[in-house]
Amino acid sequence: MMFAEAAHIGAHVVPMIILDIGLMAMLVVVGFAIVRMRSLFAVVMLQGVYSLICAAWFVSLDAVDVAFTEAAVGAGISTVLMLGAMLLTDKTSSEVPVQRAVGPLLIVLFTGAAMLYAVPDMPAYGDKDSAVNTGVGMQYMTVTPEQIEVPNVVTAVLASYRSYDTMGETVVIFMAGLGVLLLLGLNGNAGRWTAQVQGVNLSCDRAPAAEVLPTPRAKPKTTPDEVRPDAAPPKPKSKPKPKPKPRGGTS
Amino acid sequence: MNSHIILRVVGKFLIPLIIIFGLYVHFHGDFGPGGGFQAGVIVAAGVILYALLFGLKACKQAVPPSWIRIGMTVGVLFYVGTGLVTWMLGGKFLDFDVLHPATDHPLGQHIGIIFVELGVLFTVATVMVAIFYAFGSRQPQIMDDEKDF
Which chain A residues are Cβ-neighbours of B96 within 8 angstroms? Predict the structure, then answer.
């Protein structure tokens, strides 16, 4: 349906090209800024900005579903996760000596040159004779209104025609969550828990079980800034366990 | 975070809207952009916003971690279960046409897509929250000179 309009689309091609060039230029600027920055907080924020510009660009390419995912995952969730990871490391990255930057720079330049070399062979944007628009893609476009009657062909392809693939993706996400839970546990520690509360080292070799820990803390409530509010209560101080215990039994 | 009263008030107002928007994205995925994956991420973003505003402990009381294990699994089971139901009804695995007897209108496809995407929503939302819980609960080593952080 995109192609039917292609004949009389010429009027707003020029503004679209300016928009695309502007978005691309912003991507390049943000990319250089990410490389040059030393403050990790700023880098994480700029990565979110980068994703958001990408999403805007995808919208201008009519790929709204991809743009939606990019905005939600790239700019939303992964920014938060990167912030969480940054809190566990450092606030600034260390300076890289110039000698060590030469090799990666050469690789990047070579890859970029190869991509630029390949660009003329790519079909033009929206070319109706390109492989994408002549093969199975067009078939989905013609067949979906009769077989699925879903206006959004992307959903029809994802959930119905390519249902096996989406099932695999769901299982991949499940496995990712499972891996995180096995390695870190829902409380961020697979079996060990350490904290420094007011200069006292507390540790426990049993993971605070994943259920809510409603134990009211008597002492540290007066100084809430010292202890993160989400920390597990310093239960092990009273009864240190010498051996790791299976997770099931709560105290 | 105790002093951020404006953030909290606005957040309390926004979080239900975010969740509702997630559900809209899910159930409107047939007609516009969106679907289970995006909806799951949006719902997870609502939960994470709650955790950022009110602390991880309050968030773990609102969305207990036990839900996460269940939700992850239920999502995959929903997806595979839809396939199994189509199997039982005499069709092929994940062939949604058999889900509804109507022959003039592919209603079965709509039902199947919604159910399958519901599984995606459950898994994606809970896994995102699980990853956030796992990383957010780790004790950062706060040095003395970084107290202001």
Answer: 160, 163
